[in-house]
Write a structure and sequence with these properties.
By secondary structure, the chain is α/β, with parallel strands linked by helices. It has eleven helices and twelve strands. Strands 6-2-1-7-8-10-9 form a seven-stranded mixed beta sheet. Strands 3-5-4 form a three-stranded antiparallel beta sheet. Bound molecules: S-adenosylmethionine (SAM).
């Protein structure tokens, strides 16, 4: 019998696969979008010559190649949309209000660490790095913008630092002219001075072991990532952010994201350009920090 063009996914198979994907990376598919999982994973069944999603589920649970296969799934299921200077009002808040406050407060350390969590192909990391580079008063500080993503493909692109037209849809010509070198066919390469303070790593935001390796940071940008998670995964990731931030460190979420029903641990700071979250100063109570 010949193999059908497209293999159908039963509702039981959907739930098993949905939960497996969710446990791995936090991305949650509601019942009404089961067709997305079915459509996107069909190519894996073809690739692996499997006859049903049940077989695929068993492969993902028990095969010695399960780890690599989960990584393949992530490449098919994540939304990687991003561009330079996305959500400009928030970046204005960062450069005009948050940075000056941090620079004053950290004048003794002369060190700033910024984390772009779920950085996709790197546009957010390089945007933040350009904004840091604009500040002459910290030109001799120890600066680092670290971007992580679960997708190896996206990180490869980020490290390459070469971008096409769609990445530039919101950038001002000033930044494009100053920090990019034109290549052929409408592509541009990010300058070395920006690249030097940027770094990237493959890291799953739900992987506690790997996250332990990450040091404390002053600001976390996690924009347009948590929208794909359900409440439990959001809570877990936000707890990690709380741990990883220095006291009075800032958390910047995407415009449609908030910590409502997730946690009350952060304080809301009303800036001129935006509202942002900040980790309150932790006080020691009889040896217990909180
Ligand atoms: C829509 S992009 C957001 C990019 C950028 N932050 C922005 O706002 O332009 C979401 C990114 O989150 C990543 N992502 C999803 N789940 C993740 C996880 N569990 N750990 C790390 N990154 C994840 C995806 O691979 C994707 O590149």
């Amino acid at each position: 019998m010949s193999r059908p063009e497209k293999i159908a996914m039963s509702s039981d198979e959907f739930r098993l696969l949905r939960d497996l994907v969710y446990d791995y990376c936090g991305i949650f598919f509601h019942d009404d979008v089961s067709y997305i999982l079915e459509r996107r994973l069909n190519s894996r069944l073809r690739e692996l010559s499997l006859e049903s999603f049940g077989e695929y589920y068993r492969f993902l649970r028990f095969s010695s190649e399960r780890r690599q296969e989960l990584e393949e799934i992530v490449e098919l299921l994540t939304t990687n949309e991003t561009y330079f200077f996305r959500e400009k009002y928030q970046l204005d808040a960062f450069s005009d209000e948050i940075l000056p406050e941090l620079i004053e407060r950290k004048a003794y350390d002369r060190k700033l660490r910024i984390w772009s969590a779920g950085c996709s192909s790197g546009e957010e990391v390089y945007t933040i790095a350009m904004l840091l580079k604009e500040r002459r008063d910290i030109s001799d500080w120890d600066l680092e913008v670290f971007g992580n993503d679960i997708s190896r493909k996206m990180l490869q692109s980020a490290r390459k630092g070469v971008f096409g037209r769609s990445s530039f849809r919101a950038i001002e010509p000033y930044f494009k002219d100053k920090y990019f070198e034109p290549l052929e066919d409408g592509f541009y390469r990010i300058s070395d001075e920006v690249r030097r303070i940027a770094s990237f790593g493959q890291l799953n935001l739900l992987d506690d072991e790997m996250l332990q390796l990450l040091g404390k940071v002053d600001v976390i940008f996690c924009r347009n990532v948590l929208i794909y998670f359900n409440a439990d995964a959001r809570r877990k990731v936000v707890e990690t952010f709380f741990d990883k931030l220095h006291d009075l460190g800032y958390l910047l979420l995407g415009h449609s994201e908030s910590l409502i029903n997730i946690t009350t641990d952060f304080e809301l700071v009303y800036l001129v350009n935006d509202m942002v979250y900040r980790k309150p100063r932790q006080v020691e109570l009889r040896g217990v920090t909180r």
